[in-house]
Specification:
The protein has about 250 residues and is an alpha/beta fold. About 35% of the residues lie in helices and about 20% in strands. A six-stranded parallel beta sheet has the order 5-4-1-11-12-13, with helices on both faces. It has a five-stranded parallel beta sheet with strand order 7-6-8-9-10, sandwiched between helices. It has a two-stranded antiparallel sheet with strand order 2-3.
């Protein structure tokens, strides 16, 4: 029985509206007993928040199935030396870092960690740049530059810090294979027995390809059929939407 890693936006939901058939797909996977991770690069919501978001759209999934770039970032940092972090982000990210034993501080931090927040300001940029220039390790939850409606996302918030310091962050989220390995560790799964379902060739499918997973592209989101030939790698399967998937 295969492990399933499934993206949210563009696969299960558009904004907060159900993509028709995705509820039946997820409920079938749960009934079959496939280990399931619903994986998102978005670091602002907790597992409970995401459970409520999907539940409101008619997809009922246990809270334990959700895995975010904030959770993966905390997992990554557990494997590094240092316990002090200057954080630009929301409560879900700081919650995961506290749980991993980190102190959130602006006094000699070991790490500068950037997630997503609407309260981004000049003071945050100044402090983050000063700490990174002074040797703090620069970590970001995800490389996405924008969210729905061209709202600024993590990659955009990192850009000024990169320009000031000349240093790029390590991005934990997709397409990094780190988040895939972290999600698999979360369910004690292995890459050779795992399928990833996503709507974006350059994040979901690339991450799956780099981590050695079987890949399923759905064309209900970002990437369309014409986009497949633009990349040097290919998904193993292509479906119009999650409700059409018949290979798991």
């Amino acid at each position: 029985m295969k492990n399933i890693i499934c993206d949210i936006d563009g696969v299960l939901l558009h904004d907060n509206k159900l993509i028709p058939g995705s509820d039946k797909f997820i409920h079938r996977i749960l009934e079959q007993g496939n280990p399931l991770v619903i994986l998102t690069n978005y670091p602002v919501q907790t597992g409970k928040d995401l459970q409520n978001r999907l539940g409101a759209a008619g997809i009922n999934v246990p809270e334990t199935c959700f895995y975010t770039s904030a959770m993966a970032t905390a997992d990554f940092l557990k494997h590094q030396k240092g316990t002090k972090a200057f954080v630009i982000g929301e409560g879900a990210l700081t919650h995961e870092l506290y749980n991993a034993g980190f102190t959130i501080t602006d006094i000699n931090p070991d790490f500068v960690i950037v997630g997503e927040t609407r309260s981004y300001n000049w003071d945050m940029i100044h402090k983050a740049a000063r700490f990174v220039a002074g040797g703090a390790r620069f970590i970001a939850t995800n490389p996405d530059t924008n969210g729905p409606g061209f709202s600024p996302a993590c990659g955009a918030l990192c850009a000024p810090i990169e320009r000031i310091t000349g240093k790029m962050p390590f991005y934990v989220g997709k397409p990094s294979s780190w988040i895939i390995r972290s999600a698999l560790n979360h369910i004690q799964g292995h890459s050779e027995n795992t399928v990833i379902i996503g709507d974006n060739m350059r994040t979901d499918i690339l991450a799956g390809f780099q981590a050695g997973l079987e890949t399923i592209l759905v064309t209900s989101g970002v990437s369309q059929m014409a986009d497949i030939d633009k990349e040097p790698f290919r998904p193993n399967h292509v479906f119009a939407c999650a409700g059409d998937i018949d290979v798991v």
